[in-house]
Amino acid sequence: MVAARWARLEGPLALAAAGAALAALAGAPLGMLAVEAASGGWDALAATLGRTAPWAVLGRTLLVAALATALSAAVGVPVGALAGRTDARGARAALLVHLFPAALPPFLLALGWFRLLGPAAGPLFSSAGVVLVLGLAHAPVVAGLTALGLRGVDATAEEAARVVAGPARALVRVLLPMAAPAVGFGVLVAFALALSEAGVPLFLRAPTWPAVVFSRLGGLRYAPGEAFALVLPMLVVGGALLAAERALLGRRAFGGLGLRRRPPLPLGDRRAAGTAMLWLLAVLPALPLLGLAGAAGLSGVRAAAAQAGPSLRTSLLAAGGAALA
């Protein structure tokens, strides 16, 4: 009896312990900020949140993140749908090209857009430029999850939809709605990434909430009390995102994603148009890489490879550790 009860509790207890450890590690920096803020008095916290300027920055940040996410969805959902479940020419190659920029820091892509646009890069240094850079930088996240969601749709439902509505209408009216949890999760991730990005707004001189927090910690004006006060509203936003994710996914599991091979949906006489649309949207996030390559040249690429040293190994180890955690 005791052994059976322990067997039932072992999984939840292990999950609770892992969650507590992760929460402690993630909350340690915030705790240190709270201690520093308390040592300087809590008046700074009330004074910071009592001003209208921080709330205006927060509103602008939420708007920029929302617009960037809308752009990510407008680009990522069609790419994921066309590359994930249709017979568009070069679908896998297009998806690979589209996903590659997701492995790069958005700041690097912002620099690439600056190099690519050259003298016409003036409008890039604005909130609209932040929307453009982050929207295209995070479109691969939406595209990848859309493709996975479509591949996870029940095969029987897909066959029935193809018979009743035809391939193209089945994809738009039946399969995409069935993959809505995966698509919605991709949109939530893109929004969270856009909301938390500090490097791109700082580079493009369009201050957002994370950039303001960073300026209070890593800039010339070190003010931990103000930084802690500015972090508090983001905790509320993060809790809202977590609640949205739970409401969207619940305990739903995306089982078998990408493992079941089924024939792609034929586009028929729309195949040429579908292929053109796929490649046009797929290459958009990769365009700033042309600017970087043009600025560096072959000699610059060789010099960067020679100077990289152990940085690549360090980055891979850090990324692997974060993924395992």
User: What is the rounded Rg?
Assistant: 23 Å
Shape, principal axes of CA atoms: globular
Helix fraction, binned, reads over 70%
Largest sheet: none
Question: Which spans of ≥5 residues are poorly predicted at pLDDT below 50?
Answer: none
Instruction: State the end-to-end distance.
Output: 34 Å
User: Secondary-structure element order, as H and E?
Assistant: HHHHHHHHHHHHHHH
Strand portion, in percent?
Answer: under 5%
Q: In terms of structural class, how would the helical and strand content be classed?
A: mainly alpha
| Total helical segments | 15
Outline the structure in words.
The structure is a single chain. The protein is mainly alpha-helical and 325 residues long. Helix content is 78%, strand content 0%. The model has no long low-confidence stretch (mean pLDDT 82).
In short:
The protein is mainly alpha-helical and 325 residues long.
Topology (elements, then pairings):
Blueprint: H1 2-39, H2 43-50, H3 52-85, H4 91-99, H5 106-117, H6 127-151, H7 155-165, H8 167-178, H9 180-196, H10 199-203, H11 209-217, H12 224-249, H13 271-282, H14 287-308, H15 311-324
Helix pairs in contact: 1-12, 2-12, 3-4, 3-6, 3-9, 3-13, 4-13, 5-6, 5-14, 6-9, 7-8, 9-12, 11-12
